[in-house]
Design brief:
Strands 1-2 form a two-stranded antiparallel sheet. The chain contains 13 helices and 2 strands. The protein has one domain. By secondary structure, it is mainly α. A hairpin with a 5-residue loop joins strand 1 and strand 2. The relative contact order is 0.11. Helix content is 63%, strand content 1%. It is elongated, with a radius of gyration of 28 Å.
């Protein structure tokens, strides 16, 4: 049976979220009497509401990065036994409490908010047509060449869009700690690709400046949260410990040599045959003191 298009259009699963965001935005506007500042306050409220989930996502990402050397060691050891590799990988996740899916849940939960805010602004552009914010809507903006500055919150402001693109670069480049060289290289590439795509889409679809104000402020709040989490958790991450299969080699001086896979080297054992008393010269010094 064919599903009617009219029924599909009438059934919008995110419409309740759109209505809620619109009601909250209207309530904030009733206090501050400016939709530009209202959108910034709305972004801060959404960010605070998702703070626990974002913290959980950051911790999950950090723990996944910490066990990356151990995962590589398992992949090298069981490269010809996929079943054993899966068993050992799951055992490692259970042992360390790492969950690679834990970092995805906060993103999936925030996506409806992001999409709903887009529709809340797009579907009611008339509400922003007579609204101004900072330079937006000023005489200077209205007289700007090539309409680079917005005459109202309902039309695009390309200077504001450029600020959003730059903020995205710094957000991707510097607020996601990467310990793996390959991951760090991918992060560098994404730091250029993602902002370029956003800038292209913003120009192509002429995003209203009201929408860009929300996304820019939300991105700034996100960066502030990430820097806080990095300072709190990443500078002193909880050590998970070396892989149990990694046995460090000893140099000629008896010190532990870190293995090539990047795993932490265990302390070197005392050389056999000295009775645990150190070097021959040290024993002579102790006997002379007696």
């Amino acid at each position: 049976m064919e599903f009617p298009i009219a029924t599909w259009l009438a059934f919008n699963p995110i419409q309740p979220i759109v209505d809620l965001l619109h009601a909250v935005l209207t309530a904030i506007y009733g206090v501050v009497h400016n939709y530009g500042w209202s959108l910034i306050l709305l972004a801060s409220i959404v960010k605070l509401a998702f703070w626990p989930l974002n913290t959980m996502q950051f911790k999950a990402m950090l723990k996944t990065q910490q066990i990356a050397p151990r995962l590589k060691a398992l992949q090298a050891k069981f490269k010809n036994d996929k079943e054993k590799l899966n068993q050992e990988t799951m055992a490692l996740y259970k042992e360390t409490g790492a969950n690679p899916l834990a970092g995805c849940a906060p993103i999936l939960l925030q996506m409806p908010i992001l999409i709903s805010l887009y529709w809340a602004v797009i579907s009611d552009k008339a509400m922003f047509a007579s609204q101004s914010w900072l330079w937006i809507g000023s005489d200077v903006a209205k007289a700007s060449p090539f309409h680079m500055l917005a005459a109202s919150l309902a039309v695009p402001d390309y200077v504001l869009l450029a600020c959003y693109v730059v903020s995205m670069y710094f957000s991707v480049r510097f607020t996601s700690p990467a310990v793996d060289p390959q991951q760090a290289q991918q992060q560098k590439i994404m730091a250029f690709v993602s902002p370029a795509m956003v800038g292209f889409l913003g120009v192509k679809y002429a995003w209203p400046s009201a929408l860009i104000i929300y996304w820019l402020s939300f991105n700034v709040f996100t960066m502030a949260q990430q820097f806080y989490l990095i300072r709190k958790y990443h500078n002193n991450p909880a050590a998970i410990g070396p892989h149990p299969e990694a046995t460090p080699a000893l140099s000629s001086a008896g010190t532990a040599v870190a293995p090539k896979n990047g795993l932490p080297a265990a302390p070197a054992a005392a050389p056999a045959g000295n009775g645990g008393g150190g070097s021959r010269a040290a024993r002579r010094r102790r006997s002379s003191r007696r």
